[in-house]
Amino acid sequence: MMEAGFATRAIRTGHWRTPEGEHGEPIFTTSSYVFSSAAEAAARFAGDQAGNIYSRFTNPTVRAFEERLASLEGGERCVATASGMAAILAVCMGLLKAGDRILSSRSLFGSTTMLFNKYLARFGIETTYVPLSDPDAWEAAIDSRTRLLFCETPSNPLTEMADLRQLAAIAHRHDCLLAVDNCFCTPALQRPLELGADLVIHSATKYLDGQGRCVGGAVVGDHKLVGEEVFGVLRTAGPTLSPFNAWVFLKGLETLELRMLAHARGAAQLADWLLAQPAVEHVYYPGLSGHPQHRLIGTQQRTGGGIVAFDMRGGQTGAWRLIDATRLLSITANLGDTKSTITHPATTTHGRLSPEERSAAGIGDGLVRVAVGLEDIADIQADLLPGLADLQP
Ligand SMILES: *Cc1c(COP(=O)(O)O)cnc(C)c1O
Protein backbone atom coordinates (compact mmCIF):
# COMPACT_ATOMS: atom_id res chain seq x y z
CA MET A 1 0.00 0.00 0.00
CA MET A 2 2.97 2.38 0.44
CA GLU A 3 2.95 3.35 -3.27
CA ALA A 4 -0.76 4.17 -3.32
CA GLY A 5 -1.99 7.75 -2.98
CA PHE A 6 -2.92 9.40 0.32
CA ALA A 7 -6.69 8.95 0.00
CA THR A 8 -6.32 5.31 -1.02
CA ARG A 9 -4.08 4.51 1.96
CA ALA A 10 -6.47 6.39 4.27
CA ILE A 11 -9.22 4.01 3.15
CA ARG A 12 -7.39 0.71 2.57
CA THR A 13 -4.25 0.40 4.70
CA GLY A 14 -4.20 -1.68 7.88
CA HIS A 15 -7.13 -4.04 7.39
CA TRP A 16 -6.02 -7.64 6.93
CA ARG A 17 -9.24 -9.43 5.97
CA THR A 18 -10.06 -12.47 8.15
CA PRO A 19 -11.35 -15.81 6.75
CA GLU A 20 -14.89 -14.40 7.26
CA GLY A 21 -14.37 -12.18 4.22
CA GLU A 22 -15.66 -9.04 5.96
CA HIS A 23 -15.55 -5.83 3.89
CA GLY A 24 -15.64 -3.42 6.86
CA GLU A 25 -12.91 -3.44 9.49
CA PRO A 26 -13.88 -5.74 12.40
CA ILE A 27 -13.77 -4.62 16.04
CA PHE A 28 -11.82 -7.17 18.06
CA THR A 29 -13.33 -6.86 21.52
CA THR A 30 -11.09 -9.28 23.33
CA SER A 31 -8.78 -8.68 26.26
CA SER A 32 -6.56 -11.71 25.69
CA TYR A 33 -5.64 -14.25 22.99
CA VAL A 34 -5.52 -18.03 23.00
CA PHE A 35 -2.40 -20.08 22.23
CA SER A 36 -2.47 -23.47 20.52
CA SER A 37 -0.11 -25.01 23.07
CA ALA A 38 1.96 -24.32 26.15
CA ALA A 39 5.03 -24.13 23.94
CA GLU A 40 3.41 -21.46 21.75
CA ALA A 41 2.43 -19.46 24.83
CA ALA A 42 6.03 -19.65 26.05
CA ALA A 43 7.37 -18.58 22.65
CA ARG A 44 5.00 -15.57 22.53
CA PHE A 45 5.90 -14.46 26.03
CA ALA A 46 9.61 -14.90 25.34
CA GLY A 47 9.25 -12.75 22.22
CA ASP A 48 10.48 -15.59 20.00
CA GLN A 49 7.19 -15.69 18.11
CA ALA A 50 5.23 -12.67 16.89
CA GLY A 51 1.54 -12.49 17.77
CA ASN A 52 -1.03 -11.17 20.18
CA ILE A 53 -0.87 -11.89 23.91
CA TYR A 54 -3.01 -9.31 25.65
CA SER A 55 -4.84 -6.20 24.44
CA ARG A 56 -2.82 -3.83 26.63
CA PHE A 57 0.07 -4.85 24.32
CA THR A 58 -1.57 -5.32 20.93
CA ASN A 59 -5.04 -5.61 19.43
CA PRO A 60 -5.84 -6.15 15.74
CA THR A 61 -8.30 -3.23 15.47
CA VAL A 62 -5.90 -0.88 17.23
CA ARG A 63 -3.08 -2.15 15.01
CA ALA A 64 -5.14 -1.42 11.89
CA PHE A 65 -5.49 2.20 13.01
CA GLU A 66 -1.76 2.35 13.83
CA GLU A 67 -0.73 0.99 10.43
CA ARG A 68 -3.06 3.35 8.62
CA LEU A 69 -1.90 6.46 10.49
CA ALA A 70 1.79 5.46 10.21
CA SER A 71 1.34 5.22 6.46
CA LEU A 72 -0.38 8.63 6.23
CA GLU A 73 2.33 10.35 8.31
CA GLY A 74 5.08 8.56 6.39
CA GLY A 75 6.46 6.90 9.54
CA GLU A 76 7.76 3.36 10.11
CA ARG A 77 5.69 2.82 13.20
CA CYS A 78 2.67 4.23 15.06
CA VAL A 79 1.55 3.47 18.59
CA ALA A 80 -2.02 4.41 19.55
CA THR A 81 -2.82 5.79 22.99
CA ALA A 82 -5.87 6.39 25.17
CA SER A 83 -5.72 10.18 24.58
CA GLY A 84 -3.54 12.86 23.07
CA MET A 85 -2.13 13.59 26.53
CA ALA A 86 -1.26 9.90 27.00
CA ALA A 87 0.69 10.12 23.72
CA ILE A 88 2.72 13.09 25.01
CA LEU A 89 3.28 11.39 28.37
CA ALA A 90 4.43 8.17 26.70
CA VAL A 91 6.92 10.07 24.53
CA CYS A 92 8.38 11.83 27.58
CA MET A 93 8.52 8.68 29.70
CA GLY A 94 9.97 6.62 26.88
CA LEU A 95 12.67 9.02 25.74
CA LEU A 96 13.62 11.17 28.75
CA LYS A 97 15.14 10.61 32.17
CA ALA A 98 15.72 12.76 35.26
CA GLY A 99 18.14 15.55 34.45
CA ASP A 100 17.06 15.86 30.81
CA ARG A 101 15.53 19.07 29.56
CA ILE A 102 12.66 19.75 27.15
CA LEU A 103 12.80 22.86 24.98
CA SER A 104 9.29 23.79 23.94
CA SER A 105 7.35 26.45 22.12
CA ARG A 106 5.69 28.81 24.59
CA SER A 107 2.22 28.56 23.07
CA LEU A 108 1.08 25.05 23.87
CA PHE A 109 -2.10 23.15 24.60
CA GLY A 110 -2.88 23.93 28.27
CA SER A 111 -2.67 20.37 29.59
CA THR A 112 0.69 19.91 27.87
CA THR A 113 2.09 22.92 29.73
CA MET A 114 0.65 21.50 32.96
CA LEU A 115 2.18 18.06 32.27
CA PHE A 116 5.61 19.60 31.67
CA ASN A 117 5.57 22.16 34.50
CA LYS A 118 3.77 20.35 37.27
CA TYR A 119 4.31 16.63 36.72
CA LEU A 120 7.47 16.03 34.68
CA ALA A 121 9.27 18.66 36.77
CA ARG A 122 8.61 16.49 39.81
CA PHE A 123 10.64 13.72 38.20
CA GLY A 124 13.58 15.96 37.39
CA ILE A 125 12.69 16.87 33.80
CA GLU A 126 12.74 20.64 33.30
CA THR A 127 11.13 22.53 30.44
CA THR A 128 12.34 25.79 28.92
CA TYR A 129 10.02 27.82 26.69
CA VAL A 130 10.86 29.84 23.59
CA PRO A 131 8.83 31.74 20.97
CA LEU A 132 7.56 29.26 18.37
CA SER A 133 8.57 31.13 15.22
CA ASP A 134 12.02 32.38 16.31
CA PRO A 135 14.62 29.74 15.32
CA ASP A 136 17.50 31.75 16.82
CA ALA A 137 15.78 31.66 20.21
CA TRP A 138 15.44 27.87 19.93
CA GLU A 139 19.09 27.40 19.08
CA ALA A 140 20.29 29.81 21.79
CA ALA A 141 18.24 28.03 24.47
CA ILE A 142 19.67 24.55 23.84
CA ASP A 143 22.16 23.35 26.44
CA SER A 144 23.99 20.08 27.07
CA ARG A 145 21.00 18.66 28.95
CA THR A 146 18.41 19.42 26.26
CA ARG A 147 17.16 16.20 24.74
CA LEU A 148 13.75 16.96 23.22
CA LEU A 149 12.43 19.90 21.18
CA PHE A 150 8.63 20.06 21.27
CA CYS A 151 6.17 22.24 19.37
CA GLU A 152 2.68 22.63 17.97
CA THR A 153 2.36 24.33 14.60
CA PRO A 154 0.20 26.21 13.83
CA SER A 155 -0.27 27.40 17.41
CA ASN A 156 -3.54 27.62 19.26
CA PRO A 157 -5.30 30.05 19.03
CA LEU A 158 -3.11 32.59 17.18
CA THR A 159 -2.08 30.25 14.30
CA GLU A 160 1.60 31.22 14.54
CA MET A 161 3.81 28.74 12.65
CA ALA A 162 7.26 27.22 13.17
CA ASP A 163 9.51 26.41 10.22
CA LEU A 164 9.83 22.67 10.85
CA ARG A 165 12.76 22.14 8.46
CA GLN A 166 14.73 24.75 10.40
CA LEU A 167 13.74 23.34 13.78
CA ALA A 168 14.68 19.79 12.72
CA ALA A 169 18.10 21.00 11.54
CA ILE A 170 18.66 22.82 14.86
CA ALA A 171 17.57 19.76 16.86
CA HIS A 172 19.86 17.39 15.00
CA ARG A 173 22.86 19.77 15.09
CA HIS A 174 22.64 19.49 18.89
CA ASP A 175 21.85 15.78 19.06
CA CYS A 176 18.25 16.38 20.14
CA LEU A 177 14.96 14.93 18.93
CA LEU A 178 12.14 17.04 17.45
CA ALA A 179 8.56 16.08 18.37
CA VAL A 180 5.66 17.86 16.65
CA ASP A 181 2.06 17.85 17.87
CA ASN A 182 0.34 17.66 14.48
CA CYS A 183 -3.18 17.85 15.82
CA PHE A 184 -4.21 21.05 14.00
CA CYS A 185 -3.05 20.03 10.52
CA THR A 186 -3.20 16.22 10.45
CA PRO A 187 -1.14 14.39 7.79
CA ALA A 188 -3.63 15.57 5.17
CA LEU A 189 -2.16 19.08 5.42
CA GLN A 190 1.32 18.65 6.99
CA ARG A 191 3.72 15.73 7.42
CA PRO A 192 6.40 16.71 9.95
CA LEU A 193 8.44 13.49 9.51
CA GLU A 194 9.02 14.36 5.85
CA LEU A 195 10.26 17.79 6.99
CA GLY A 196 12.81 16.22 9.36
CA ALA A 197 10.93 15.76 12.65
CA ASP A 198 11.60 12.57 14.61
CA LEU A 199 8.20 12.13 16.22
CA VAL A 200 4.64 13.14 15.41
CA ILE A 201 2.07 13.29 18.19
CA HIS A 202 -1.70 13.31 17.71
CA SER A 203 -4.79 13.95 19.69
CA ALA A 204 -7.01 11.68 17.57
CA THR A 205 -9.89 13.22 19.50
CA LYS A 206 -9.84 16.17 17.10
CA TYR A 207 -9.68 15.91 13.31
CA LEU A 208 -8.70 12.22 13.03
CA ASP A 209 -12.09 11.32 14.48
CA GLY A 210 -13.56 14.44 12.98
CA GLN A 211 -17.02 14.06 14.45
CA GLY A 212 -16.46 14.64 18.16
CA ARG A 213 -17.14 11.07 19.32
CA CYS A 214 -14.06 9.56 21.00
CA VAL A 215 -10.92 10.46 22.92
CA GLY A 216 -7.64 8.95 21.71
CA GLY A 217 -4.12 9.68 20.56
CA ALA A 218 -1.08 8.37 18.73
CA VAL A 219 2.68 8.69 18.29
CA VAL A 220 4.38 8.11 14.93
CA GLY A 221 8.10 7.72 14.20
CA ASP A 222 10.71 5.05 13.58
CA HIS A 223 10.96 1.47 14.85
CA LYS A 224 13.47 2.29 17.57
CA LEU A 225 11.91 5.42 19.11
CA VAL A 226 8.25 4.49 18.72
CA GLY A 227 8.26 0.71 18.21
CA GLU A 228 10.56 0.10 21.19
CA GLU A 229 10.77 3.07 23.56
CA VAL A 230 7.26 4.56 23.34
CA PHE A 231 5.56 1.18 22.86
CA GLY A 232 7.46 -0.14 25.88
CA VAL A 233 5.92 2.55 28.10
CA LEU A 234 2.44 1.96 26.70
CA ARG A 235 2.43 -1.80 27.17
CA THR A 236 3.85 -1.45 30.69
CA ALA A 237 2.10 1.66 32.01
CA GLY A 238 -1.15 0.93 30.19
CA PRO A 239 -2.78 4.03 28.61
CA THR A 240 -3.54 2.11 25.42
CA LEU A 241 -6.39 2.79 22.99
CA SER A 242 -9.61 0.77 23.17
CA PRO A 243 -10.49 -1.23 20.03
CA PHE A 244 -13.86 0.51 19.76
CA ASN A 245 -12.25 3.95 19.68
CA ALA A 246 -9.63 2.68 17.22
CA TRP A 247 -12.44 1.58 14.91
CA VAL A 248 -14.08 5.02 15.08
CA PHE A 249 -10.74 6.63 14.18
CA LEU A 250 -10.22 4.17 11.31
CA LYS A 251 -13.54 5.35 9.88
CA GLY A 252 -12.51 8.96 10.52
CA LEU A 253 -9.27 8.53 8.57
CA GLU A 254 -11.20 7.36 5.51
CA THR A 255 -12.63 10.86 5.02
CA LEU A 256 -9.72 12.81 6.55
CA GLU A 257 -8.40 14.47 3.40
CA LEU A 258 -11.87 15.45 2.13
CA ARG A 259 -12.78 16.90 5.50
CA MET A 260 -9.51 18.79 6.07
CA LEU A 261 -9.73 20.43 2.67
CA ALA A 262 -13.35 21.39 3.34
CA HIS A 263 -12.54 22.75 6.84
CA ALA A 264 -9.72 24.80 5.31
CA ARG A 265 -11.87 26.09 2.43
CA GLY A 266 -14.51 27.25 4.92
CA ALA A 267 -11.91 28.80 7.23
CA ALA A 268 -10.28 30.71 4.36
CA GLN A 269 -13.66 32.10 3.29
CA LEU A 270 -14.50 33.05 6.87
CA ALA A 271 -11.09 34.73 7.40
CA ASP A 272 -11.56 36.85 4.23
CA TRP A 273 -15.05 37.82 5.30
CA LEU A 274 -13.94 38.73 8.84
CA LEU A 275 -11.22 41.01 7.43
CA ALA A 276 -13.99 43.13 5.91
CA GLN A 277 -15.96 43.47 9.17
CA PRO A 278 -15.56 46.86 10.89
CA ALA A 279 -16.07 45.25 14.33
CA VAL A 280 -13.01 43.04 13.79
CA GLU A 281 -9.58 44.53 14.50
CA HIS A 282 -7.30 41.72 13.39
CA VAL A 283 -7.67 38.26 11.83
CA TYR A 284 -5.20 35.43 12.49
CA TYR A 285 -5.21 32.81 9.72
CA PRO A 286 -2.15 31.29 8.00
CA GLY A 287 -3.85 31.42 4.60
CA LEU A 288 -4.05 35.24 4.66
CA SER A 289 -1.24 36.95 2.74
CA GLY A 290 -0.64 39.24 5.75
CA HIS A 291 0.10 36.32 8.10
CA PRO A 292 3.75 36.54 9.30
CA GLN A 293 4.57 32.95 8.26
CA HIS A 294 2.38 32.88 5.15
CA ARG A 295 5.43 31.76 3.10
CA LEU A 296 5.12 28.31 4.76
CA ILE A 297 1.78 27.71 3.06
CA GLY A 298 2.47 25.36 0.18
CA THR A 299 6.02 24.55 1.31
CA GLN A 300 5.30 23.10 4.76
CA GLN A 301 1.57 23.23 5.26
CA ARG A 302 -0.78 22.49 2.35
CA THR A 303 -3.49 25.03 3.31
CA GLY A 304 -4.23 27.39 6.19
CA GLY A 305 -6.18 24.73 8.14
CA GLY A 306 -9.54 24.99 9.87
CA ILE A 307 -8.90 27.40 12.78
CA VAL A 308 -9.49 31.15 12.55
CA ALA A 309 -8.92 33.62 15.40
CA PHE A 310 -9.74 37.32 15.48
CA ASP A 311 -9.65 40.33 17.79
CA MET A 312 -13.01 41.97 18.38
CA ARG A 313 -13.36 45.66 19.11
CA GLY A 314 -14.60 46.24 22.65
CA GLY A 315 -12.36 43.68 24.38
CA GLN A 316 -14.04 40.99 26.47
CA THR A 317 -17.44 42.71 26.28
CA GLY A 318 -17.34 42.67 22.49
CA ALA A 319 -16.10 39.08 22.35
CA TRP A 320 -18.68 37.76 24.82
CA ARG A 321 -21.49 39.67 23.10
CA LEU A 322 -20.50 38.11 19.78
CA ILE A 323 -20.33 34.61 21.29
CA ASP A 324 -23.63 34.96 23.13
CA ALA A 325 -25.40 36.24 20.02
CA THR A 326 -24.66 33.03 18.09
CA ARG A 327 -27.34 30.37 17.75
CA LEU A 328 -25.70 27.84 15.44
CA LEU A 329 -22.05 27.73 16.56
CA SER A 330 -21.35 25.61 19.64
CA ILE A 331 -19.80 27.42 22.59
CA THR A 332 -17.15 24.83 23.45
CA ALA A 333 -13.38 24.68 23.51
CA ASN A 334 -13.17 21.50 21.45
CA LEU A 335 -12.21 21.54 17.77
CA GLY A 336 -11.88 19.23 14.80
CA ASP A 337 -15.59 18.45 14.64
CA THR A 338 -18.08 18.76 11.77
CA LYS A 339 -19.82 21.26 14.06
CA SER A 340 -18.23 24.72 14.19
CA THR A 341 -17.18 25.84 17.66
CA ILE A 342 -16.55 29.28 19.14
CA THR A 343 -14.32 30.03 22.13
CA HIS A 344 -13.11 33.00 24.17
CA PRO A 345 -9.51 31.88 24.93
CA ALA A 346 -8.75 34.55 27.58
CA THR A 347 -11.45 33.23 29.93
CA THR A 348 -11.38 29.51 29.01
CA THR A 349 -8.39 27.68 27.50
CA HIS A 350 -5.95 30.40 28.60
CA GLY A 351 -7.89 31.55 31.69
CA ARG A 352 -5.35 30.14 34.14
CA LEU A 353 -2.58 32.38 32.83
CA SER A 354 -2.01 35.68 34.62
CA PRO A 355 -3.04 38.81 32.65
CA GLU A 356 0.69 39.50 32.06
CA GLU A 357 1.35 35.98 30.75
CA ARG A 358 -1.71 36.24 28.53
CA SER A 359 -0.67 39.52 27.04
CA ALA A 360 2.90 38.21 26.51
CA ALA A 361 1.33 35.29 24.63
CA GLY A 362 -0.73 37.71 22.52
CA ILE A 363 -4.06 36.45 23.85
CA GLY A 364 -6.09 39.66 24.07
CA ASP A 365 -9.38 40.07 25.92
CA GLY A 366 -11.18 40.58 22.61
CA LEU A 367 -9.75 37.44 20.99
CA VAL A 368 -12.25 34.89 19.66
CA ARG A 369 -11.41 31.52 18.13
CA VAL A 370 -13.64 29.73 15.64
CA ALA A 371 -12.86 26.12 14.71
CA VAL A 372 -14.67 26.01 11.40
CA GLY A 373 -16.80 22.90 10.95
CA LEU A 374 -18.44 21.58 7.81
CA GLU A 375 -21.73 23.50 7.86
CA ASP A 376 -22.51 25.91 4.99
CA ILE A 377 -20.18 28.87 5.40
CA ALA A 378 -23.04 31.29 4.65
CA ASP A 379 -24.85 29.98 7.73
CA ILE A 380 -21.75 30.44 9.89
CA GLN A 381 -21.41 34.02 8.65
CA ALA A 382 -25.10 34.70 9.22
CA ASP A 383 -24.74 33.36 12.76
CA LEU A 384 -21.82 35.70 13.53
CA LEU A 385 -23.37 38.74 11.91
CA PRO A 386 -25.70 39.91 14.74
CA GLY A 387 -22.80 40.06 17.23
CA LEU A 388 -20.59 41.82 14.71
CA ALA A 389 -23.26 44.31 13.66
CA ASP A 390 -23.89 45.13 17.30
CA LEU A 391 -20.37 46.47 17.54
CA GLN A 392 -20.08 48.63 14.44
CA PRO A 393 -17.84 51.49 15.55
C1 LIG B 1 -6.64 18.32 22.47
C2 LIG B 1 -5.20 18.48 22.28
C3 LIG B 1 -4.28 17.68 22.97
C4 LIG B 1 -4.69 16.65 24.00
O1 LIG B 1 -5.44 15.64 23.45
P1 LIG B 1 -6.53 14.79 24.29
O2 LIG B 1 -6.99 13.79 23.30
O3 LIG B 1 -7.58 15.75 24.75
O4 LIG B 1 -5.80 14.18 25.43
C5 LIG B 1 -2.94 17.87 22.70
N1 LIG B 1 -2.51 18.80 21.83
C6 LIG B 1 -3.38 19.59 21.15
C7 LIG B 1 -2.85 20.58 20.19
C8 LIG B 1 -4.74 19.46 21.36
O5 LIG B 1 -5.59 20.27 20.70
TrEMBL record:
Enzyme class: transferase
Plastid among keywords: no
GO cellular component: cytoplasm
GO terms for MF: carbon-sulfur lyase activity; pyridoxal phosphate binding; transferase activity, transferring alkyl or aryl (other than methyl) groups
Keyword Zinc-finger recorded: no
GO BP: any one term: 'de novo' L-methionine biosynthetic process
EC numbers for this chain: 2.5.1.-
CDD domains per UniProt: CGS_like
Catalytic activity: O-succinyl-L-homoserine + hydrogen sulfide = L-homocysteine + succinate
Metabolic or biological pathway: Amino-acid biosynthesis; L-methionine biosynthesis via de novo pathway; L-homocysteine from O-succinyl-L-homoserine: step 1/1
PROSITE patterns, A to Z: CYS_MET_METAB_PP
A family per Pfam: Cys_Met_Meta_PP
Domain of life: Bacteria
Keyword annotations: Amino-acid biosynthesis, Methionine biosynthesis, Pyridoxal phosphate, Transferase
Modified residues (N6-(pyridoxal phosphate)lysine): K206
Subunit structure: Homotetramer.
Described function: Catalyzes the formation of L-homocysteine from O-succinyl-L-homoserine (OSHS) and hydrogen sulfide.
Family of the protein in this entry: Belongs to the trans-sulfuration enzymes family. MetZ subfamily.
Protein name (record): O-succinylhomoserine sulfhydrylase
